[in-house]
Structures are given as structure tokens and as C-alpha cells.
Write a structure and sequence with these properties.
This protein is an alpha/beta fold and 297 residues long. The chain folds into 3 domains: 43 residues; 62 residues; 158 residues, Nucleotidyltransferase, domain 5, CATH 3.30.420.10. Helix content is 46%, strand content 12%. The chain contains 12 helices and 5 strands. Strands 3-2-1-4-5 form a 5-stranded mixed sheet. A hairpin with a 4-residue loop joins strand 2 and strand 3. Helix 1 packs antiparallel against helix 2 and helix 4 packs across helix 6.
Length: 297
Amino acid sequence: MTKQRRLAYQAIKEVGQNSHGAITLLLNFIGVSRQAYNKYWKREETPREIRDKLLKERIIYWYELNTKTIGAGIIFTNLKRDEQVTFEVTLKMVKRLMRELGIRCQSRIKRRNLEKQSEIYLQDNVLNREFDVNTPNKVWLSDSTELSYGISGEHKIRLSGVLDLCGRYLLSSHLSLTETAEAERTVFEKAFELTGDVNPLIHTDRGPAYTSKSFNNFLNRHEVIRSMSRPGTPYDNAPMERWWSEFKLRWMNRHPMPKTYEELVKLVNDGIDYFNNISRSETRNGCTPAEFWSIAI
């Protein structure tokens, strides 16, 4: 039986539940006998239909868990680790069932036309875009981003974070009114409390908070290596910028604007938990950032 015929039977069944005589009229319209129609609904489901039914349920589960912002590839990654899916699944199957369900990733990272900038070597850009790191606490990135809350988003606040390049795991976060040296010191204190006595390379931009004497004196006590982006070159800190972008597009923008500070704190914490402990990627061998980071220790 063709997909079109199955969809027609389903539509006739739904319409017929609320309209007397509609089933007969519709069956006559498509040229199908009542006997054939009844036989279809009384028959047993085939193994493929049972499999597809379960897969559709799990696809919808992972799709909604990830705020409808993931595509077939990430859904496929989650299905491979789904305990309810005990049979082999292929990416082609996932794409087919997503088409039948009519769902697709509902966010896209904005693309910007970046003009190529002249390459000027600065000695303090130690990281030099070497982002492929598979050892925990070897390279940390840091930056802050602005968030809004209130009835109409009238309140602004800064969210600072420390990101370990290994697995793109966010080690710590901190909310403050502005990006200050004290706020950045606080977020790094949290990171060191989590990791213990480590001496990573720490890369930031050239913001006043990161170039202040008090902040650098604090880092010097931990005997770290400092690295900073070149002026006007945000791509030198690309993984951190990408993390903020996805956090906003796939989490903050997918939820109602927090009305109070307490609501904002909960939404931010839930979002960080999602990206650290739920979101999976094939670039991490199907692991979450927390799993990948823990395995690599």
C-alpha cells in the first residue's frame, strides 16, 4: 500500500469520527470499497510499521527535549544511545520519518559576511586559533554576553563563562550587572574550585575587565599562561562566541522572556545544564560535553 493511500485512510478515519456518513462518501470518492477499508484497520501492524511508530515517538521526544533546534544528525546521535531503540537505525531512516512528521530544525546560526583582516602576529595571541584540544584543563576560554529580562526586556545583565576547549564544556558561569574585573575573577574562582590545582592556557579578548591589574594578578597566582585575541578579531575566540550564539538561539530565544531576575537565573542554569549534560554531538563521539570531558580526564 502506498504512503498516499495510508494517509487517505487516516484522514477518512479522523473525519468519519465526527460526521455520520462521511466515510462512505469519501471511500466512494477515492474508489475504495468499505470492505478493503475495514480490512486495513483490522490487520496487524507489520514489523516495519511497529518500528517506525516507535522511532517517530522517540524522534519527537528528542526533538522537543532539544527545544526543536536540532536536525536529523543530532537526533540520529541521540537515537543511537536511546535505551528504548533496540534495533539498528540509520540517518536515512531518521530523515524519512522527520519528513513524514513534518518537523525540522527551527533555528539557524546567523551567517555574517566577514571581511578578511590583515594577519598581524601579536606575541600575546598564544592560542593562535589552535582550537582542537582533547585534554581537559589545557585551554580555557572566557567571555561575557548580554541577556535581557523584564516585562519588555528593559533590564540588562551580563553572563560570564569559562569554557574548556576539551568537549566545549562550560566549567563555570556568573551573572553580574556589568563586565567588571571582579565579575570575571568570580567566574574563574568557580572554575578553579571545580578543577582544583590546574595551570591552563587562558584565552580572552582585550576587554578592560581582562586587562585590569587586579584580574591579572589573580590569574598569576594560579601560574597560568595568558593569551588574548588580536584587536578587532573576534574569531580568535570563536568557540566561546559560538557557545554564546547557540545558547541564545537554541535556548534563550526558545523560551519566554524572563519577567524577574529569579526567572532569569533559573532559565540560564537550566540552559547551561542542557548544553553540558544533554546536548550530544558526533564531533564528541556522540557524547555530551560533560561525558566527553570526564572521560578525557
